[in-house]
Amino acid sequence: MARFWTRLMVVLTLILGVNYIGWRWAASLNWDAWWIAVPLVAAETYSLIDVLLFGMTVWRLKERTGAPPARPDATVDVFVTTYNEPLELVMNTALAAARIRHPHSTWILDDGDRPELRQLAADHGLGYVTRGEDWDNMPRHAKAGNLNNALMVTGGEFLLILDADQVPEPDILEKTLGYFNDRKVALVQTPQYFNNVPDDDPLGSQAPLFYGPIQQGKDGWNAAYFCGSNAVLRREALMELGLLGYVQETEKSIRRALAASKKAIRQARKAADADSPLVGAMLDEVEAAIGQADSQLAAGQSLGELTYEVQRKVDAAVRTLVQADVQALQADLEEIAAMDLAAVGETGVKVITDEAVQRLSGREWSPLGAMESVQAVLDALTVERTGEAQPLMPLATISVTEDMATAMRMHARGWQSVYHHEILAYGLAPEDIGTMMTQRLRWAQGTIQVLLRENPLTQPGLKWGQRLMYFSTMWSYLSGFAAIIYFAAPIIYLLLGILPVASLTADFFIRFIPFMVVNQVLFAVAGHGVPTWRGQQYSLALFPTWIKACTTAACNVWFGRPLGFSVTPKSRQAGGPRWSLIRPQITVAVLLVVAAIAGIVRLATGLAEPVGTLVNVAWVVFDLLVLSVLYKAVRYRGHAPGEN
Amino acid sequence: MELSHQARGSYTEVTANGRLNMVSAPTLRAYVGEVVASGSNRIVVNLAQTTFMDSSGLGALIGCLKAARQAGGDLRIAAVQPQVKMVLELTSMDRVLTSYSSTEEAFGNE
Prior knowledge:
The complex is a heterodimer.
Chain A: H1 2-28, H2 34-59, E1 76-82, H3 87-98, E2 105-110, H4 115-123, E3 127-129, H5 142-151, E4 158-163, E5 167-168, H6 172-176, E6 185-189, E7 193-194, H7 210-220, E8 231-234, H8 235-271, H9 277-298, H10 303-339, H11 341-344, H12 354-361, H13 372-380, H14 402-412, E9 416-419, E10 425-427, H15 433-453, H16 464-476, H17 479-496, H18 506-526, H19 533-541, H20 543-559, H21 583-604, H22 610-635
Helix pairs in contact in A: 1-2, 1-18, 2-7, 2-16, 2-17, 8-9, 8-13, 9-10, 10-12, 15-20, 17-20, 17-21, 17-22, 19-22, 21-22
Chain B: E1 2-7, E2 12-20, H1 25-37, E3 42-46, E4 50-53, H2 55-70, E5 74-78, H3 82-90, E6 99-100, H4 103-106
Parallel strand pairs in B: 2-3, 2-4, 3-5, 5-6
Antiparallel strand pairs in B: 1-2
Helix pairs in contact in B: 1-2
């Protein structure tokens, strides 16, 4: 029955929404003020698409009744990931993890490489993993790198991943492992719930709509995704992604290097000493070797073989030429000795050893080492994935939200996922607004990175439902741009009297009001009464964060600029309220109040008309209610579990 | 999984008998790592008696390949069984690793 009402509301939202927005585009725009009229209708269209994607999500809401019993012999590694959290907090989680009933191995994945934690793990008989020397001077890939490193030294069939603060229930595996009896299932995600959050949740930490109707809806489309913690993954599926990624990246890098090789050699010839026959001859050899590799690739020969042959030929050529050089050197030495025996003394003529030839022929010391462009080409013609710490990177490293990116790749390979709607671990939410904003920024940045690097709408292997489910999450992070317009429009009207809508007549209200009403009813019905207002407030109130996420992620993906990544601190930050964090929002709030007063004055003096003023003042009140969440958030000083 | 190795002149043959899966993958990686560290950088992994391989096993092979290449040599695989062949194709690992029909053939062209 609930499903019927939800679907009815979705259909009504679709009809009334298209009716309203269609009319707005077709017949309501005030073209004299196009600079605000068009942005406003675009923002409203954005919101309609957002709510329709939500409607599509809950259309297939899947309420699971629980997993079948797990195979008793299923082997599991439980990973507790940590970077800089307090040791007590990590150990509290790790010891709870050790108490999980289904047989398993517990591992602390310590990216902070802390000797005290290593000792604590040993004292309690827990596994302890840190990065090895392979990772020195290599991209570390944050948590994805930490997990990828641990995957190579453990052997369980399944992996339960827990953030350092997520204390699991002893039955977490019994409740989730059974889903993997279906051999196509690669992921079981459970909710993230926080103990240290009061009922009114000033920082919007609990995400009851996401860990509820949204994930359940995505589950209905086989698109429930991995959220980094409190999830069980199938190792086989991850390793498969690692292998495919390895082959793809290796082939791409080899093709790129071959394509760049002609230019590189030409450059080297120009730059090299034109008189040096040694360099010319060596470049001839390199060119021939690369040319052959190119045709071997076209003929379908394996990358292992062709890269091995290139390297071997180049090395042999270099050695021959260095040897010739050294012989000339030796001859010179002998001549010098003959001319001036005294200088050489009793040791006789210095002999250049084979070992020296070997060293001089090595990559870095050989004349080839001086030609960076050629060297770069040769370095890329390998199957060792030299730019990474390990060849296999099972968890995606294209985004700071490796979880979503990895899940999407699994879905594209045909794996299935499960969202199990039962709280089986209890964590700690940020306790101050600064930490919370850092966390949200990172989630948003990561999501936009995935959108720009592996757009779900164009990923082969995904079904259309899955594409739209991923896209829906990405789309929702664009809300910052719409928020600015929703704040600006009433200010512009109340201060300047410019209305983006041609006229506020009955035509407007009979289309707008039913749409807004059905929209809110949809959230109420689909949400099964979970509080959604907090989420709605933050999706607008954190507009500077969302916009910053979009711009920094775009600069990162397109121009390789760093994101300014930081780990979310788990302990509360000291100091007084940090109003400076929400300066843009305070500015907007002040402008809204000033505009409302100005609007009322204009009305009183006959400069404005009543309907427009009333609608826009109401709009200002709504905007202020949205922003009011931040007042509480900035003053929030944390909360101890149990005090409500 | 039973592992052994034998010097064969220009290369060292590593025999991996049994199931090369997520349980035995770290063992193989460590084993080949030691063989390479002891000075043999040209390795042929004889898979004639490898009855099963999963993606973790393949991952270990790639790790071994990297170790051999970094030591200036190479790692090749020989006598692949049908299930292993299928896994190689499924993960497109056959784009990287050529499977030779026998260990003698693996470095035969040099």
